[in-house]
Amino acid sequence: MKTICLVVVCFLFMAPLAWGQLRVGFYSSSCPKAESIIRQVVQQRFGSDRSITAALLRMHFHDCFVRGCDASLLIDSNSTNTKSSEKDAGANQTVRGFELIDEIKKILEAQCPSTVSCADIITVATRDAVALAGGPNYNIPTGRRDGLVSNPSEVDLPGPDVSVAKATKIFKSKGFNANEMVTLLGAHTVGVAHCGFFGGRLSNFQGSGAPDPTMDPTLAAKLLQTCGTTSEPITQDPTAFLYQNTSFIVDNQFYNQILQKRGILQIDQALALDSSTRPVVSSFATNGMAFQQSFAKAMVKMGKVQILVGNTGEIRKNCRAFNPPK
């Protein structure tokens, strides 16, 4: 009898096997200073640019939710990669922080050549940036390897106006439940969004001629001054903070904001209105410690999505390019 292995079943069966090959302190013998080097570079950057936390959180999410946490997002298009790369997909046009990963990789290659993966650099750097911004400081297992494919056609990330039901389905396909989805979207406690992602909510929502009724009118009026109307937009697609108060701090205040109809992105606001997610939002809004603990666990879990370990993939010498064929 032939054995038929469905994709989802195979993923669920193989994932724990791969996770088991990750471990905290993976580089303790091969590159003992690896994590301290990453931390020092991130700390230096954070000192001059606190927005790097949001940038790394977004990079980490956009990488892990396509082919898994394999640094495929970092690949540049070039003469040998004529089909372009994930970086060229529309959803990734505003992802930033690549030069920070380059800086870390350059130092690590000088210290321990061909040892520390770009995928691990993203994961550890994000953890360190979260801690610097007041978030949890969690242990992250390492041992990931870098992917050998980067295809823009595979980039299918949830957009800012996706429904809660659709977002839940997408997160579930990656192994996350609704609680974990609400937790991870709490990363919107830091960072900004371009007006193009939410401007339709401000003055002519779904052709109504009025702002989105689920947005606080005072906030809509304020954002309209920043963005302009859809008929007369302000050039250069300006940005607004996703959370208007503690914009550089990883805390639970994002959840209080969306309960007050002050969510910038439509999906964020919907979390506070949908019956399947509102209880989680309310819980985190009143219990900052619960959010911090849940966020740490969810980030560790996200760092394990469809990882490459052992002899799969490679350890890139340059995070922007696949290694030359041997």
TrEMBL record:
Keywords: Calcium, Disulfide bond, Heme, Hydrogen peroxide, Iron, Metal-binding, Oxidoreductase, Peroxidase, Secreted, Signal. Disulfide bonds join C31-C112, C64-C69, C118-C319, C195-C227. Residues 21-323 form the Plant heme peroxidase family profile domain. Gene3D superfamilies: 1.10.520.10, Peroxidase, domain 2 (1.10.420.10). It is found in: Secreted. The keyword Glycoprotein does not apply. Removal of H(2)O(2), oxidation of toxic reductants, biosynthesis and degradation of lignin, suberization, auxin catabolism, response to environmental stresses such as wounding, pathogen attack and oxidative stress. These functions might be dependent on each isozyme/isoform in each plant tissue. This is Peroxidase.
